[in-house]
């Protein structure tokens, strides 16, 4: 079985080509624990279906930058510029142009929260996020960990750099660490900011690079770069 490592604006993945191979959940978990190491997760590319596992070996319903990487992989292998596929969060559409973009699951607002000195919003974009506006220069993730476990979510901290441009940092569950970027988190933050300002385009500067979220026809489109970081590997269970 073939695989390779990819980066999507700082989110790092093992991509497993399982289009013609049927893998059990146990087999997928074993591959994750054997090969992912310090990367964020693994994308199992099945026929028009993306199955995503976090670094800890557990399946996640969705990963935004993982979805963009899935589209990039299909573009590489099958020369398709438009890719319709499914995930455990529903049907998706990806397009390869100057960058790789994906129509994201519709953001769902679950309400506001306030815990001690922290307050913000809870938004689900395939997976749940706590969105907090605050200082992105000096984040004490240990102080935020109780929220991560209390709400069982990712945590996104952002601040406004200028109109339409934000700085974002994300602590991801399943990775249990800050990651270079988070596509669903970027979309959650952009959705909150768009509601506040009416802007249809939000640019987000993550540790690993720049992501763009565009709101069009009632949908959110996440765009950014994807690159292959290794030669093809022979993966063995």
Quick summary of this structure?
This protein is an alpha+beta fold and 237 residues long. The protein has helices spanning 25-35, 64-78, 141-151, 183-197; strands at residues 2-8, 11-17, 41-46, 49-54, 59-60, 82-87, 90-96, 100-103, 108-115, 118-125, 127-133, 154-162, 165-172, 177-179, 201-206, 209-216, 219-224, 227-228, 233-234. The protein is 22% helix and 47% strand.
- The total count of strands amounts to 19
Number of domains: 2
Radius of gyration: 17 Å
SSE series: EEHEEEHEEEEEEHEEEHEEEEE
Kindly name the structural category. Answer: alpha+beta
Report on the biggest sheet: 12 strands, mixed
Q: Could you state the CATH homologous superfamily of the largest domain?
A: Diaminopimelate Epimerase, Chain A, domain 1
Helix content: 10-25%
What is the CATH class name of the largest domain?
A: Alpha Beta
Number of helical segments with 4 or more residues: 4
Ends: how far apart? 9 Å
The proportion of strand residues reads over 45%
Average pLDDT metric: 97
User: What is the name of the CATH topology of the largest domain?
Assistant: Diaminopimelate Epimerase, Chain A, domain 1
Globular, elongated, flat, extended or rod-shaped: what is the shape?
globular
Annotated CATH architecture of the largest domain: Roll
């Amino acid at each position: 079985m073939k695989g390779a490592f990819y980066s999507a604006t700082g989110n790092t993945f093992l991509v497993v080509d399982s289009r013609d191979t049927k893998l059990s959940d146990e087999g997928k978990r074993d591959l994750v624990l054997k090969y992912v190491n310090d990367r964020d997760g693994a994308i199992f590319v099945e026929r028009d279906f993306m199955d995503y596992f976090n670094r800890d070996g557990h399946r996640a319903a969705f990963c935004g930058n993982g979805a963009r990487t899935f589209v990039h992989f299909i573009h590489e292998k099958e020369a398709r510029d438009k890719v319709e596929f499914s995930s455990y969060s529903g049907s998706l559409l990806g397009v390869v142009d100057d960058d790789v973009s994906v129509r994201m699951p519709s953001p769902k607002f679950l309400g506001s929260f306030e815990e001690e000195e922290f307050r913000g919003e809870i938004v689900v974009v395939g997976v749940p996020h706590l969105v907090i506006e605050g200082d992105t220069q000096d984040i004490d993730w240990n102080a935020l960990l109780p929220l991560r476990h209390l709400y069982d979510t990712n945590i996104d901290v952002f601040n406004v750099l200028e109109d339409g441009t934000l700085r974002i940092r994300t602590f991801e569950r399943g990775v249990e660490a800050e990651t270079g970027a988070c596509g669903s988190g970027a979309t959650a933050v952009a959705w909150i900011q768009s509601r506040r300002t009416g802007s249809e385009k939000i640019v987000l500067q993550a540790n690993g690079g720049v992501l763009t979220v565009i709101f069009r026809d009632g949908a959110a489109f996440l765009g950014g770069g994807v690159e292959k970081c290794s030669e093809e590997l022979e993966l063995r269970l």
